[in-house]
Amino acid sequence: MSYPIITIARTFGSGGRIIGEKVATLLGIPFYDRALIQITAEKSGFHAAVVEQMQHKKPASLLYTLSGSAMEAPLQDQVFFAQAAVIRELAEKGPCVIVGGCADSVLEEKAPILKVFIHAPLEERAIRTKEVYKAEAKDYKDYVKKMDKKRKAYYDYFAHRTWGKAENYHLCIDSSIGLDMAADLIMRTAKELAEK
Asked: Distance between CA 85 and CA 90 in Å, rounded?
């Protein structure tokens, strides 16, 4: 059975990575999340810490494009393009689950693809951030909001559309229904699409 490429975008603390890993296990297909950082670093020559840092940094202006081709693109753009190339290569190898990296946008012309957005109530995300992710913060709700703001800025800049907007995805799931149930919904949808 040929499953679609499954891309997962998520609000911070919603458990999107955990759900993605569960889906990959259920379907028996590769899972890429933090591995994207390492693969991008190996293929591009950028240090893994730089690749990760660029995903949590507010994107630069596009003004550099107006000043002529002699100027080099900002580092964040270079890292994004390197990672986008890796995402395309991984998708060419066959069905997989890719979390983050604007993969839904990068693979927009790729078929078949199942685009998923995972979200959850702020309170639940704050608790998961503290207890599961073991992040250190004075105010966990504020920390989650700041991380979401960075994700939105990164996605909106590179994907050229609005992060979290329902019409940009095939499935939008509130993970407060349970991570296993969320994974099961995605897995069953992927199987249905594979049988079409």
From this structure: 9
Rg (alpha carbons) of the chain, rounded to whole number: 17
H-type helices in the chain, by residue range? 16-27, 34-44, 48-54, 75-92, 103-106, 122-131, 140-159, 179-195
103-159, pLDDT tens digit by residue? 999 998 887 999 999 999 999 999 999 999 999 999 999 999 999 999 999 999 999
pTM, two decimals, is 0.91
Q: Domains in the chain and their CATH numbers?
A: 5-195 (3.40.50.300)
DSSP secondary-structure letter at 25?
A: H
- CA atoms of 80 and 101, how far apart (whole Å): 8
- Bridge partners (DSSP) of residue 115 are 7
